[in-house]
Amino acid sequence: MPKEKGQKVVATNRKARHDYTIEDTYEAGLVLTGTEVKSLREGRASLVDGYAFIDAGEAWLDAVYIPEWGSGSWTNHSTRRKRKLLLHKEQIVKISNRIKDGGYTLVPLQIYFNEGRAKVEIAIAKGKRDYDKRQALRERQDNREAQRAMSTRRHLGE
After folding, report:
1. Which of 24, 37, 142, 146 has its CA 20 to 30 A from that of 53?
2. What whole-number distance in Å separates Cα of residue 1 and Cα of residue 130?
3. What confidence score (pLDDT) does residue 5 get?
4. Residue 84: exposed, middle, or buried by beta-carbon count in 10 A (0-12, 13-18, 19+)?
5. What pTM, to 2 d.p., does this model score?
């Protein structure tokens, strides 16, 4: 079987970018079972309720939904099990110190395959307040309206 090239995104947590201000991002490997990998290759996963945490010097990903593989039997995995993240020790210490300072959390942003290996992008994030969310939506809407006005002006000027 030829080796996979490039990057294939399986699942994205779009709500995380809305609910949190992203500070730093890290790429971590995932420890998975065979049926989990096959289910991910079919493009099936959800990061909506997922979160990451550091426990006893190890990074973990919890509550991420990877459905059972359709052709699996008794070897199938549980859908929302705790999965170990593969990071360098220095990265784990740095993340742990940042989270202990308070106000920060570890959020999964996306699961993808990079050169055939399952990876997860995690971020150190700070929760947004409601007024921050409203302001971000207002800015996005204003930019969209400005772009629309410029494109109609460009088409009328031709």
Report:
1. 37
2. 50
3. 77
4. middle
5. 0.75
